[in-house]
Amino acid sequence: MRIRRVAKVGAPLAALALAASACGGGGEDNGDNGESVADIPAIDINKTDRSELQDGGTFHWGINEYPTQYQVNHTQGNQANAVRVANAVMPQAHGFDEEGQAHPDEDFVLSSEISDDGSTLTFELNPDATWSTGDPITWEDYAAHVETVGGHRDNSDKFDLGDTTGYERIDDVEKGEDKFEVIFHFDTPFAEWPRLFEVLYPKEYMEDPKKFNEGYQKDFPVTAGPFGDVEFDDTAETITVNRDEDWWGDPAKLDSIVYDSYENDALAGVMNNGEIDGFYLGYDAAGYETLKDADGVRMTHAANNGFRHMTFNGGEGRILADQDVRNAVVHAINRQQMAKATLDGVNWPTDPTANRLIVSTQTGFQDNSEGYGEHAPEKAAEMLDEAGWTRESEDALRTKDGEKLQLQWVVPGGLQNASDEAEIAKAQLGEIGVGVQIEPVPNNSYFTEYVIPGNYDATTFAYTSTNPYGGDLAENFVGPVGEDENGEPNWGNNLHNFSTDEINAAFDELSTLTDPEEYAAKANEIDRMLWEQSMAVPLFQRPGQYAVAPEVANWGANGLASYSYEDFGFTK
């Protein structure tokens, strides 16, 4: 029986992405050009019609790590660069425009419709869509994805899952009129459903734990996208994707994309030498100085769907497990100084205002840091005293029960601004008797061996999102998501290794809200909760500043929009 279709995608939460004025922040320290985060454009990609592009060519995309896991639902696959590669060669159900409006990716999903009560979602699949094996992409692939990523399998503990959000609410998946119609039944409405199936994998690699955990480890055994035939060069640390001649959609304009991985601080020099065509410059001051007047380099200027932050490991038994101690550490650190030290050198607003769930171009953006984000070292010292961390003299580290209050602050090698941030924190924390041991680690092992396993006390990095929904960040703050094989809590992609029932419940509620104003209000409420817990303490909204060759089209600072990989190219 055919399910009645009653609502088109695009109405629910996509409206949140409409432009709005910023609240909070601003002021005289917003950068040399007087710009605030609210003034920054939404997108800057040199948008060009396909007819104006050359046929062929290789685009060299500079990235700052060489990922090894490309099953993005795996805990080790939750990395932006892994998703950037996967999106070129794998299916995705929906894309987003620059205003954050969702639309089905018709190369894979011809239509997607939700019932009025949010309980039934129907996809009409493109019958031309096939895996590189020649097998059609059918409802069974989607059903296998839900079964695994939703944690519904009897052996779910064998799958190293990072996040189950949304999928855990689907209690049944059924075949529609034929194998190209799939019907999802939600036990609880999930208003952010367009962000599901960001990357789809064939059922064979979702049903078997070994294939899930290892099948896409530095490999793409099965693909389905405008590019395919993925090549890994461990010596050069490059990933190459080649145009898929069997692709049924608009053919890729490029012959290939090469993801060239370098240490962060090396990318500008490589770009200046003409070895890559573009990379995310962000807040690399030395790189900006190298490239700002360079021939053959354009700097993009737009909002970025991400924020840089300080993350503290509050897991059980860690020195920052105490909320009051985390809050004190935040008060001891001058976030404005950190932001200014980083952003002054790239001619970007140095306002530390950032909202974890809402970007400056979205409705409801505001600063929720009052009482938690201010630089107040005297208050920090008092809080530590009250928490039992005492100091015998002005030069001594604080101690409690014989333990020194000293943080292991991990920084990735080749990223000068991360080292600078750690040094600022070390000096300022030292003033109130908190020690900081800065530990530089290799770039490629920073996440896999230190941050993800919880081998750190403090660090700085960025959270980015590929869709406009604040709930997409839930995986970074909620949990646990079950237990591991030893019966210990599995925190999945929550790198803080703790959460609260209130945060979990609030994110659950957020994802049921379809009214933009209600959604924004709840998102701000959650952002406030995260301030209270000192989770991913924002330093600033990331600059959408890419260095790119002027002839590169449809690539760069894409803000809330999805990339169309087949439309990347070089102007004629």
Automatic annotation (TrEMBL):
SUPFAM superfamilies: Periplasmic binding protein-like II (SSF53850). CDD domains: PBP2_Lpqw (cd08501). Keywords: Signal. Residues 111-479 form the Solute-binding protein family domain. Pfam families: SBP_bac_5 (PF00496). The keyword Signal applies. Residues 1-22 form the signal peptide. InterPro entries: Peptide/Ni-bd, SBP_5, SBP_5_dom. The keyword Signal applies. PANTHER family: MONOACYL PHOSPHATIDYLINOSITOL TETRAMANNOSIDE-BINDING PROTEIN LPQW-RELATED, PERIPLASMIC BINDING COMPONENT OF ABC TRANSPORTER. This is ABC transporter family substrate-binding protein.
